[in-house]
Amino acid sequence: MNKYRIAVFASGEGTNFQSLVDAAARDELGGASVELLICDKPAAPAVARAQKAGIACHTFRPKDYPAREDYERELVALLEQKSIDLIVLAGYMRLLSSVMVDAYAGKIINIHPSLLPAFPGKDAVGQALAYGVKVSGVTVHFVDGGMDTGAIIAQRVVEVHDHDTAESLSAAIQSVERQLYPEVVGRLAQGKIQLNGRKVSSLLKR
Questions:
Q1: Where are the alpha helices (DSSP H) in 10-87?
Q2: Does the annotation count 112 as an active-site position?
Q3: Residue 90 exposed, middle or buried by CB count within 10 Å (0-12, 13-18, 19+)
Q4: pTM of the model
Q5: By CB neighbour count within 10 A (0-12 exposed, 13-18 middle, 19+ buried), where does 143 fall?
Q6: What stretch of H or E contains 104?
Q7: Which residues, 6+ apart, have CB-to-CB distance to 191 below 8 Å?
Q8: What are the beta bridge partners of residue 201?
Q9: Most buried of 22, 121, 146, 163, CB within 10 angstroms?
């Protein structure tokens, strides 16, 4: 049986990347292996995490390329070379173009700190607090090229308290993210999540 190979795209701290690496080390990722980190900021802490874990890392600077499609063609070639089965966006702060989305249709997932379709895009936590919601949460979804518009795989609710700040609510949401993302990746690796249009069927535990 061939190993299920994932590549993680990150731009910052890499906490969700770390949660996936740790889950794989505990054999809690459904047999999936974290093969590659791709980072658009060479100095990001996520890069140091990959180096410490002994995971291959590819960094690049988007400003060195004429257009997004140019560096994405290079990335697609690298992903194909490494036989990547799934792309996991984990704090990757760039929209993907059709070059990447078409090449890996149904094989790219993202995690977002709100209950989509509410509060897509940047500063979802700030948006939620400003709106005065009583619950927020986490969404894992397939990527379709839009801004957090892909089919929803799984969601978890996080209660918003009257005393919450952006920092405290972010911390609560991130704690849930670190649990949910490895679970979803593991189920994908086991073939237990299926995409049919906008409908996703899964056997995720509640």
A1: 15-25, 45-53, 68-81
A2: yes
A3: buried
A4: 0.94
A5: buried
A6: none
A7: none
A8: 194
A9: 22
